[in-house]
């Protein structure tokens, strides 16, 4: 893959068929998300797929803020959180039960890994702080199948999503039928069938141009300029401070007495936030408001 295609999202359009498409490809950004984690292979693969899916979804939905896909369950994979902003700043983390993974590479699908689980998509508008939440039914085995069913129901749009992920890269192809399709038009069936022939190694290794040529050299495709995807953690001292309020002043003081300070690591980026005795006194003082604390750095 040429370097210009790494960590990019490409949009394209089949003008005559009224079908839009996207190819998302993450390399360095995906590797950065794994730096502080040593995920078992199967967890890494599914997390990578959700990361690619979050970028594809962010490019199809209109919002200014963040889109979060959160899956949780009682299975081996207990929690997965992927956040993608409308400008394609992404962060991701997964939690799992260590004991559930043996040395063999497990082939379990996402539904099995989650067990009795839920998957929620949250869109938060940055300016208004307005939140939209949608519950995604676990229909099918993969995040691609869950989202296809979800989009058909919530957006009334037929969508096909193809994902691939390994240690080095994660990538996805999305095809979506836009409104205004002719009944006798078989282009959706033809274009999605061709899309389904894409192999994982092609999705991960080829450039967007190469993928489109490989699949659609006989179709009229308009490819737009790509946009960059980057790693972005939205953690702040203020957010960590607010989280600290969930423990009592007494508990916080006990930790300070024992360890000298309270140290909180961000699960997404690994950044450490330290709080000493004076910080803690400030957090729990009656006059302290979250807005006051945001100016203390
Ligand atoms: Zn962070």
Task: Summarize the helix and strand pattern as letters.
Answer: EEHHEEEHEEHEEHHHEEEHHEEHH
Major pleated sheet: 6 strands, antiparallel
Our measurement of the CA-to-CA distance between the termini, rounded to an integer number of angstroms, reads: 42 Å
Number of strands: 14
Q: Identify low-pLDDT runs.
A: 291-297
The helix count comes to 11
Mean pLDDT value: 90
Give the amount of beta strand, in percent: 25-35%
Rg over CA atoms: 22 Å
Heteromolecules bound:
zinc ion
- Name the overall outline: elongated
Which structural category fits the helices and strands?
alpha+beta
Helix content: 25-40%
Descriptive tags:
binds zinc ion, disordered C terminus, alpha+beta, 14 strands, 297 residues, 6-stranded antiparallel beta sheet, 6-stranded mixed beta sheet
Describe the structure.
By secondary structure, the protein is α+β, with helices and mostly antiparallel strands. 33% of the residues lie in helices and 29% in strands. It is built from eleven helices and 14 strands. Strands 1, 2, 8, 9, 10 and 11 form a six-stranded antiparallel sheet that branches. The protein has a six-stranded mixed sheet with strand order 7-6-3-4-5-12. The protein is elongated, with a radius of gyration of 22 Å. The C terminus is likely disordered. It binds zinc ion. Zinc ion (ZN) binds next to loops.
